[in-house]
Write a structure and sequence with these properties.
Radius of gyration: 20 Å
Structural class: alpha/beta
Order of helices and strands: EHEEHEHHHEHEEHEEEHEEHEHHHH
Shape: globular
Bound molecules: nicotinamide-adenine-dinucleotide, thymidine-5'-diphosphate
Number of helices: 13
Largest sheet: 7 strands, parallel
Oligomer: single chain
Number of domains: 2
Distance between the termini: 49 Å
Helix content: 40-55%
CATH superfamily of the largest domain: NAD(P)-binding Rossmann-like Domain
Number of strands: 13
CATH topology of the largest domain: Rossmann fold
Strand content: 15-25%
CATH architecture of the largest domain: 3-Layer(aba) Sandwich
């Protein structure tokens, strides 16, 4: 079986559903169920005999040891993390705990388990670490896209803790020979995305008729990847990635935030028109995020050339599917908007009035 950490989150939930559609190999989801872990995302899998869930914090070494002993996975896909830049600005401590200490603890558990495998199992074992393009820092408009060799320059507590975890991961390959592969991924979007991030937040607020906050001048640039394209990249890297290597994964686009928000409004104008006029009327520019990175852009030529992966969706086709999914799944949006979520939204956007 494979072990997935953070499988109740956005990418992990999509990955597990997608895995079980494409494979007959079982999957163990190890997740602490923080505010970002939504049990409902995987509810339909509860009766699937190939699916197991363990509510475990990756910082808990004894619990991890029990899981490795009991399930003997042939691979670990490490997605568990604190993932929201804005939250990392106000509460960085939990980011250090989960992203740095948690990844270290998981690596120690894996190292101990892996060192007792026979030689064949040791060679075929994989630890797939999911990192981000944010570790490369902010680009200026004319800069070339980041490649796998671009030096690290993380700017937020989130990206700094992801960078720290990448370095520890790298050292476990170099020092102990653990068969590790790392993915640097651009911004994902798609179904089951928690509505604290730009795209699901914009859709959820537009459907509720609430203002759509755009930070600063709206000209910050991100590269957007449809989440199921990321899932196919993870499967590709798991089967063909070379241990010790890193691979950039991203959509083949660069969009300013205002372009993204306007595109969502335009889709909603067609798919769910409002009597009171275009959704664009809800857009408001608000105070910027401190230290807001101007541009992320990654070059994905290596994975395309060496492993034959490329995204199936364009930004336009992926966004259309995403908006339609949120229209069809308004129960999911309502359920994840807990009182903790509402407090966060009030706190975050009050600072930006
Ligand atoms: P998410 O915030 O939606 O989900 C994170 C999951 O991890 C949640 O289910 C949460 O309960 C779990 N978790 C958090 N702390 C934990 C702990 N201590 N022990 C066990 N489980 C814990 O995140 P996501 O967007 O699905 O991102 C997944 C991974 O991909 C992260 O490592 C993130 O840094 C990386 N990534 C995400 C994006 C993106 O656009 N979403 C882009 C690049 C990289
Ligand atoms: P986000 O989805 O938080 O991802 P990240 O910061 O990891 O890239 O934000 C994407 C972009 O959208 C980022 O430039 C910040 C901006 N943004 C807004 O303009 N308004 C918002 O309400 C949010 C949450 C983000």
């Amino acid at each position: 079986m494979i072990l997935v950490t953070g499988g109740a989150g956005f990418i992990g939930g999509n990955f597990i559903r997608d895995w079980l559609k494409n494979s007959t190999e079982s999957v163990l989801n190890v997740d602490k169920l923080t505010y970002a872990g939504n049990f409902r995302t995987l509810q339909s899998l509860e009766d699937n005999p190939l699916y197991r869930f363990a509510r475990v914090d990756i910082i808990d070494r004894p619990e991890l040891d029990i899981l490795f002993e009991r399930y003997a996975p042939r691979a670990v896909i490490h997605l568990a993390a604190e993932s929201h830049v804005d939250r990392s600005i106000y509460s960085p401590a939990v980011f250090v705990q989960t992203n740095v200490v948690g990844t270290f603890t998981l690596l120690e558990a894996v190292r101990s388990y892996w060192s007792h495998l026979d030689n064949v199992a040791k060679t075929t074992f994989r630890f797939l670490h999911i990192s981000t393009d944010e570790v490369f820092g902010s680009l200026s408009p004319g800069d070339p896209q980041c490649c796998e060799m671009t030096p690290y320059a993380p700017n937020s507590p989130y990206s700094a803790t992801k960078a720290a975890s990448d370095h520890i991961v790298r050292s476990y390959h170099h020092t102990y020979g653990l068969p590790i592969v790392t993915i640097h991924c651009s911004n994902n979007y798609g179904p089951y995305h928690f509505p604290e991030k730009l795209i699901p937040l914009t859709i959820a607020r537009a459907l509720a008729g609430e203002p759509l906050p755009v930070y600063g001048d709206g000209q910050n640039v991100r590269t957007w990847l449809y989440v199921l394209d990321h899932c196919s990249a993870i499967r590709t890297v798991l089967s063909s990635g070379i241990p010790g290597q890193t691979y950039n994964v991203g959509g083949l686009n660069e969009k300013t935030n205002i372009e993204v928000v306007q595109a969502i409004c335009d889709l909603l104008d067609v798919l769910n028109p409002r009597a009171s006029g275009s959704y664009r009327k809800l857009i408001v520019f608000v105070r910027d995020r401190p230290g807001h990175d101007r541009r992320y852009a990654i070059n994905t030529r290596k994975i395309q050339k060496e492993l034959g992966w490329k995204p199936a969706e364009t930004f336009e086709s992926g966004l259309q599917k995403t908006v339609q999914w949120y229209l069809d799944n308004q129960d999911w949006i309502n359920e994840v908007q807990s009182s903790e979520y509402r407090k966060w939204v009030e706190f975050n956007y009050m600072q930006r009035a």
